[in-house]
Design goal:
Length: 70
């Protein structure tokens, strides 16, 4: 099984789903999981997709839209 890693932390379901769709448009499969220590949702990708996912989020995010990335 592929190791999943967190690519972003979303503040709510809408933001998490938006990030998931953004990644899907870039050809990267992402899942959403609850964050244990915060009121947020983790956006997870396969470990091998981490760098492309970070690049996709940066490239496809609107200018001025700050997306928290961990």
């Amino acid at each position: 099984m592929t190791q999943m890693v967190q690519v972003a932390l979303a503040g709510d379901v809408a933001e998490a789903e938006e990030l998931q769709e953004l990644l899907k448009a870039a050809g990267i499969e992402a899942t959403i999981e609850p964050e244990d220590e915060a009121d947020g949702l983790k956006v997870m990708v396969a470990e091998g997709d981490l760098d492309p996912a970070l690049d996709a989020i940066e490239a496809l995010s609107e200018p001025g839209d700050e997306t928290p990335v961990e």
